[in-house]
Amino acid sequence: MTDTEIFDKVKEILVNQFDLEENEVSLTTDLTNDIDADSLDLFEVLNRVEDDFDIKLAVAEDIKTTQDLVDKVKAQLAA
Length: 79
Description:
Blueprint: H1 3-18, H2 39-53, H3 66-78
Pfam family, one: PP-binding
Pathway: Lipid metabolism; fatty acid biosynthesis
Family: Belongs to the acyl carrier protein (ACP) family.
């Protein structure tokens, strides 16, 4: 799976979770500051990402941006 494919799927999850427009989500989108995600929101996003990609993510305090999330997914898919 390419970085673009991973990003597109992550973006779709974020757009649906936070009722955003697609152009509101980029690789540099800060999940907390730009889309006001709280810890419960992030937990729900991570659960959805795990389900959609069929992976298991460790606790992810270091996920701040969409790029961070894409990188975590890519690393898990490669493992």
